[in-house]
Amino acid sequence: MTIGFGSTRRKEDARFIRGQGHYVDDVQLPGMLHGAVLRSPVAHARIVSIDTAAALQHPKVHAVITGADLGEQAWMPTMSADVQAVLATDKVRFQGQEVAFVVADDGYSARDALALIDVEYDPLPAVVDVRLALEPDAPVIRDDQPGRIDNHIFDWEAGDAAATAAIFARDDVVVIEQEMQFPRSHPAPMETCGAVADFDRVSEKLTVWCTTQAPHAHRTLYSLVSGLPEHRIRVISPDVGGGFGNKVPVYPGYICAIAAARMLGRPVKWMEDRSENLMSTGFARDFVMRGRMAATPEGKLLAVAVDVIADHGAFNATAQPSRYPAGFFSVFTGSYDVAAAHCAVTGVYTNKAPGGVAYACSFRIAEAVYLVERCVDCMAGELGLDPVELRLANLIRPDQFPYESKTGWVYDSGNYEAALLKALEIADYAGLRAEQAEKRSRGELMGIGLSFFTEAVGAGPRKHMDMFGLGMNDGAAIRISPSGTAQLSISVQTQGQGHETTFAQIVSAELGIATDDVDVIHGDTDTTPYGLGTYGSRSTPVSGAAAALAARKVRDRARIVAAAMLEVAAEDLEWTTGRWAVKGDPSQGASIAEIAVASRGPIELPLGIEAGLDAEAVYDPPNLTFPFGAYICVVDVDPGTAHVKVRRFIAVDDCGVRINPMIVEGQIHGGLTDGVGMALMEMIAFDEDGNCLGASLMDYLIPTAVEVPDWETGFTVTPSPHHPIGAKGIGESATVGSPPAIVNAICDALGVRHIDMPCTPSRVWDAMRSKGRPA
Ligand code: MCN
Ligand code: CUM
Asked: Could you tell me which SUPFAM superfamilies the record lists for this protein (predicted)?
């Protein structure tokens, strides 16, 4: 029996390792039909006509739905104040865009019938390069918007432009400038996206099983799109085979399944295949950044500035809740105490799939950390300082917390130097530099790279964010059975993070009952309290806080009941894990289980006290939590093939109080692996006509166990001062923090200033050639 925090085994694995997980594609309903999406083969074209007659003749086809059939519902609102086509009516705007939806008896027939739909396209030139998209003669992609004459979406800035410019203008500062790209990448979860929609014509209730990280938020959007009242929509997110941000947005396929189920009066299932997922669903990153940094010649960082061109694809469907069009990018001053900072971000339409935040990004912090950590290394090179030395001299000091950044974020707590020193010690940094010097003398290319990151997770305070005007609070409800076991329902949705275990541990720690005696209910809007879902590593910071607060309410109620049981005043009782006992006489007391039965049993409860111990809480976060970490990467570059081997990777993370250190470790291992993918191999590439070149996992490479080292991890614990249990999020830290460490290591190995991700052998080869290698 285990109680409270610690590395207990994951409850959910009992079903997963037996193959008993239950995913959307496992849902089978009587009379269920199957849908398939016809997608555009071209990136940009006017639709002249769509002829569905032959497809409708297919003996197993029940319906062929086009944008015209959807009427007003052919467009849906996005989370970034834009609209997105559910099914294209006027034009197609990216390769893979949804054009029609076929419903048939089975999935094979539905896909066969797609080939029978005859669409006449009038091709238009495609806009692929985001830098050319703003040229005056660029074709206008979003001519559905009245009066639009270009591809510009937004300009957004943060920080103090004048103060920053004044520092750059000083003649006693050293300035570096570096252009860099964070390429378009893909979360590529194991399970692709899909939905089963079922509409009961009698009760007018819609049930949607769907691959979503945010069931309640999706319900709100389905209500907006379908016109059905929210209480008549039930969204069930069963087991989800990985999300990584891919399953935050609402996709046209979901809406089509819902529309078809309502039209036909039968359940409709839609599951996309791997290529569809890679071509059309929410991408990540795609930032072209020009960073500048100013420092004194002695190495005091003074200012950082960045201009960004953000490629948002054909619709601005960035699924993030902040009031800022570039999400949390304005944390780009990172972990350093600078005097001034400024960023300017321009969002642009191109003929590519929509998206923008996904892949464990913390809403653009991945881009922000990459920018600042690459700039710090460029500056170290410029000043002739060791990158460790420059960082140690400029990290925010422990006595500066809570620290207000130059762009207005208030970092809750931190002890940065301790984390960095710990990483240096695990790595034996001095030893590594000695080894490198020796290898260099033999012509071997070994590199050592550092990064230090600060994350901002737990969206979030109303000051900075909302979703469709809804504040980002999350509920938790606890029901205590008469025998003292508990069911906790939560609004967030696990996709592999282990919530069934860690949320049970939170209740267990608060009430002193065994983790096995707490079951977690999630992923069903009919049985869980409202809340906005799992992304931006917000489950622990927000929903975890709600669970702890609900448990504390249970404890408070238990105290009153215990006082009645023991015939003492409530104030005379004290809590020792699991029990209310009389102060000074611990033998006189009652456990939660004893109190639970008494609360429904024969004793007389004080006036106004309800039977049972059930309680609910809603948590409205006063601030984000700011986890951080220090990473060190060691690479060897093969001088003959330019292949990069990540030989060692040391990660010291601080996410405050850790509920389940084993799960935290697992999150870090996964995130570091993502980082290797992004740094070395992942990129969604397009040819000049806008054809997606990475529509299969043969072309879009993701890392495997072969490409990654045995991770070496360490930790420090700096609790969050405002979180009920002092925990900060961890789910995205390693993905956000690791890419710059790897690129910094490669640059260090080659002696070059910069190389863009992904650092493929051909790019590394070119960089080697620029340094006169091979000799
Ligand atoms: N945890 C803990 N102690 C802490 C912080 C977290 O024990 N101090 C535990 C949590 O209780 C939870 C897990 O670690 O079980 C991750 O918690 P948290 O940091 O709150 O993140 P979320 O649960 O909100 O997960 C979201 C995050 C995001 S945004 C992406 S993207 C990502 C990630 O999680 N997607 C994942 N990790 C993933 N891991 C898996 N297996 N699959 C995904 O799709
Ligand atoms: Cu940015 S990917 Mo996660 O927030 O689901």
From this structure: CO dehydrogenase molybdoprotein N-domain-like (SSF54665), Molybdenum cofactor-binding domain (SSF56003)
- Sheet containing strand 287-295, edge to edge, reads 152-159, 340-348, 301-311, 287-295, 174-182
CA distance 753 to 378: 6
User: Average pLDDT, stretch 232-244?
Assistant: 98
Q: Give the three-class secondary structure for 769.
A: helix
Cβ of residue 658 lying under 6 Å from some atom of ligand 1: yes
pTM above 0.80, yes or no: yes
DSSP, collapsed to helix, strand or coil, labels residue 556 as helix
Query: Which-ligand-closest: CA of 490?
Result: 1
For residue 577, the model assigns a pLDDT of 82
For residue 775, what pLDDT band results from cuts at 50, 70 and 90?
Answer: low
Q: Are 614 and 479 in contact (CB under 8 A)?
A: yes
Q: How many Å is the maximal CA-CA distance in the chain?
A: 90
Distances, alpha carbon 524 to alpha carbons 237, 392, 437, 498, 521, in Å: 6, 47, 58, 17, 8
Pocket test for ligand 2, best of 193, 357, 367, 733 (most atoms within 8 A of CB): 357
Per-residue confidence band for 1, with pLDDT thresholds at 50, 70 and 90: confident
Q: Which residues of 400-419 are buried (b: 16+ CB within 10 A; e: fewer)?
A: ebebebbbebebbbbbbbeb
Contact 114, 122 (CB under 8 A): no
Q: Is 729 in the pocket of ligand 1 (CB under 6 A)?
A: yes
Task: Using alpha carbons, select from 762, 766, 770 the residue that is nearest to residue 681.
Answer: 762
Residues 448-456 have a mean pLDDT of 98
CA of 338 relative to ligand 1 center, distance in Å:
31
| C-beta of residue 719 within 8 angstroms of C-beta of residue 415 | no
Task: Return the ligand number nearest the Cα of 495.
Answer: 1
**Pairing status of strand 644-654 against strand 628-637:** antiparallel
Q: Which protein residue has the closest C-alpha to ligand 1 atom 35?
A: 244
Atom index in ligand 2 nearest the CA of residue 363 equals 1
Q: What is the pLDDT of residue 602?
A: 78
Q: Could you tell me where the beta strands, DSSP code E, fall in 141-222?
A: 152-159, 174-182, 194-200, 205-210
Q: How far apart are CA 625 and CA 620, in angstroms?
A: 13
From the number of C-beta atoms within 10 Å of its C-beta (0-12, 13-18, 19+), residue 568 rates as middle
Q: Do the strands 205-210 and 194-200 form a parallel or antiparallel pair, or are they unpaired?
A: antiparallel
61-66 β-sheet, strand order = 61-66, 98-104, 33-39, 268-271, 194-200, 205-210, 233-236
Q: Which residues contact 384 (CB under 8 A, 6 or more apart)?
A: none
Q: Predicted confidence band at 307 (pLDDT cuts at 50, 70, 90)?
A: very high
CA–centroid distance, residue 26 to ligand 2 (Å): 25
C-alpha R_g of the chain: 27
Which residue is listed with tokens 């027939």? 109
Distance from C-alpha of 668 to C-alpha of 662, rounded to nearest angstrom: 10
**59-89 pLDDT per residue, tens:** 999 999 999 999 999 999 998 999 999 999 9
Tokens describing residue 569: 């005043």
Asked if residues 338 and 396 have their Cβ atoms less than 8 Å apart, the reply is no
Atom of ligand 2 nearest to the CA of 187: 2
Question: Are the CB atoms for 50 and 117 separated by under 8 Å?
Answer: yes
84 Cα to the center of ligand 2, angstroms = 20
Helix residue ranges, H only, 78-210: 107-114, 161-169
733 CA to centre of ligand 2 in angstroms: 11
- Ligand 1 contact, 534 CB (< 6 A): yes
145-150-156-162 Cα dihedral, nearest 10 degrees: -150
Is 720 in a helix, a strand, or coil? coil
Q: In the predicted model, is pLDDT for residue 441 greater than 90?
A: yes
Number of helices (H), then strands (E), in the chain: 18, 32
Q: What is the pLDDT of residues 652-676, one digit of tens each?
A: 999 999 999 999 999 999 999 999 9
pLDDT of residue 355: 93
Kindly state the tokens that stand for 137: 């003669």
Its ipTM equals 0.99
Separation of CA 195 and ligand 1 centre (Å): 23
